[in-house]
Specification:
Porin, globular, 509 residues, mainly beta, single chain, two-stranded antiparallel sheet, 18-stranded antiparallel barrel
Amino acid sequence: MKKLIVLSLVALLVLAFGSMAFAQAKKEEPKLDFRASGFIDAMFHAAQNVPQALPAHANNFFGPIGAFAPGGASYDRKEAYAWGRGRLKFDAIMGKEMMGTFFFEIDSNQWGERAGTGAQRNAAGHWGVADRAAVEVKQLFITFGMPWIPVPTTIMAGIHPIGVRPGAFLSADGPGVTAAMKIDPATIKLMWAKIYEGLKPTSDDSDLYGIEVNAKVGTLTVGGYGINVNSNNYPHPVDSTTVPATTWSVVNGRSNMWWLGAYMDGKLGPVNINFDFVYDFGKVEDRRDVAKATRFKDVDYRGWGTIINVGFPWEKFLFGGQFIYGSGADRKKTNADGMPGVNAVTGAQNSKMGALALPQGTEGSPGHSLILCGSGVNRMGYGYEPGADNGMARATYGGLWIAKVYAAYKVTPIFSTRFEAYYIGDTTKNGNTIGNAVKPGTSIPRNDKTIGWEFDLLNTIQLYKNLSFGFGGGILIAGDAMDYRIGTTTTNDSPKNPWALYTNLTYSF
């Protein structure tokens, strides 16, 4: 499968560049046209016990998040700050055949970032010294069509968006090649991406290979996909080594993972329906240069998740319900990072990771609630998102099951409001997904069922065609599965109920 995808992409590129010179010899040179798009936003956030979603919370399948656990600087403390982002996308368009894209992003994670800390990236909001090196290259790629091939085909090559069902699975910007072919009624997409490249003379790289197929069936779009991520060095270290060491360290693992998924979008009678299912399987193994008998046991990965959404539009109203399920880990069979080694809970070797996992580096699967998973109204910038970074992490809904109802109403042509209510349960076994409470007087993880009830109110005013103002908030009535162990003691603490208020002023162009 992997060789087929790579060879297919190479063949398409050879055809493209080989035929391009021939085609251009006959055609008049097309004119260059520039197009710009993007947005600028200014946001405000006030909250208690709601983390900001950052890569520092990476490679984690269960357990509390840093400063938001007992003893942490943010535990049971109120926080308020302003922040903002700008995105600027330039498309250099050369007729209908090709386009080059430069996509830049500028962030301030909190206005008034401290000067003198050396911070540059995500720190554009310094007072008086706001001329930071905060401009990030988010994407840089070429898009071109190949009309000389019998079926319509488009190639994207470079640092470009690589996504498959972002709300359920994969969303990332990275280097690679994507080919999309239209063979009525189906669309076929082949993907290859270079996730990590260490020392060029060694086999320490990570590659993504994928195929996605969908087709229109009546009023529905039905599709499926298969993704493989093969990592010869896992998790990805800052510096690589030429050969595996004899002692266990961060550079001495490897993984081979697969994801299979199916989805459906469209209308069934009067209702809108969206369905996703994803299943992961594979393993992470010890690759040390030692005798096999002294290596750690492989950790087998098996996880799955599903999202079902049904919405009923009626005049100016929208009513709906959503069910979300993500399998959780078994704390007797693995530790929080899912790596080979010794399970801190049982003393036995890690053997199985049952939580729904996401590939390293993906930003997929958030947006399911304001407090727990982040929401589109705040750019999904905060919530209990584990965030896969240099290794895999659970999906945002991994280890959870969520039952949600919602109602939206367009009050006036420029003002709309939406109310959402959730029950959030825990699917981690022999422990909890977010909290890490222990049984009284012991260090044995407690197993609870209820993370809590969440209630959100989201509002939007369209001030102008390109300027919107969003405001609202939410609260999570925390259940037992949000309780935390106090340090290394045998006692627990219940956090105050997490809540958040937000505003979002966005100019889009």
